[in-house]
Amino acid sequence: MKPITPCLWFDTRGEEAAKFYTSLFPNSRITEVTHYGPNTPGPEGQVLTVSFEINGQPFIALNGGPQFTFDEAISFEILCADQDEVDRYWDAFTDGGEESQCGWVKDRFGVSWQVVPERLYELMRDPDDAKVQRAMQAMLKMRKLDVAELEKAAEQA
After folding, report:
1. CA-to-CA distance for 15 and 61, rounded, in angstroms?
2. Which end of the chain is more exposed for a tag (fewer CB within 10 A), N or C?
3. Are residue 134 and residue 96 in the same domain, yes or no?
4. What are phi and psi of 41, to 5 degrees?
């Protein structure tokens, strides 16, 4: 089976978004750009689609017009190795974007991302339910997730 390819509908900024995303993630690249031709719904010569990969995962950015916009019902999770990686992605997405709760952020294009440290999932799998609940309660109060604060909360008796 071929990979499932998410198609992201932009008004006119698909190429800009693809360039931004491929600059942030390792193993990422733009693979193809197509343009509107004569007798098509968009202005001739304007970018229609941008095929790109984020860490090897294919995506398509479609400049389809203003009819549809993004919302938080769809998001992309970035599992981060450490706090430095969380900070790097968070800073990139909040530049022109909008912070939300629990590690969620909306980038300057309106796409929602979850910036999550691997350590959160480790804490959520701890056999001590009280630790899990303390870490969860700490996470629910955060915008950007803070590994040290999550660990501190989990360990408090």
Report:
1. 7
2. N
3. yes
4. -65, -20
The token pair at 20 is 């931004």
Buried b (16+ CB within 10 A) or exposed e, 83-97: beebeebbebbbeeb
131 lies in the same domain as 94: yes
Residues 124 and 138 in one domain: yes
Q: Is 99 helix (H, G, I), strand (E, B) or coil?
A: strand
Amino acid identity at 21: Y
Strands (E), 28-140: 29-35, 47-54, 57-63, 75-80, 98-99, 104-106, 112-117
For the chain, give the number of residues: 157
Q: Which two tokens stand for residue 56?
A: 């090897």
> What pTM, to 2 d.p., does this model score?
0.93
Q: Report d(CA 34, CA 23) in Å as an integer.
A: 20
Task: Give tens-digit pLDDT for 7-50.
Answer: 999 999 999 999 999 999 999 999 999 999 999 988 999 999 99
